[in-house]
Design brief:
Blueprint: E1 7-11, H1 16-27, E2 33-36, H2 41-50, E3 59-62, E4 65-68, H3 70-78, H4 82-87
Parallel strand pairs: 1-2
Antiparallel strand pairs: 1-3, 3-4
Helix pairs in contact: 1-3
Length: 90
Amino acid sequence: MTIQATIEIYSGGYCPYCARAKALLNKKGAPFTEYDVQADPKQREIMMQRTNNARTIPQIFINNQHIGGCDDLYALDRAGKLDPLLEQPA
């Protein structure tokens, strides 16, 4: 599998769901840009604008498409839909 997608994850420290989401992406060899919304309140504002006011973390975007949180990412993977998303060019 060749990862071509641009992946962004809004996360925070001490967040087990964030750790699980990042672990899955790392397992697939998918590089991502991480924004720590707890350390940078401006990033939380940006995340909420992009997600229609979602407040929970993580919030994941693949090629600027809002995927949702950790459970959503794992559901995509179980359904066999995550790899094709990761292979799409940005």
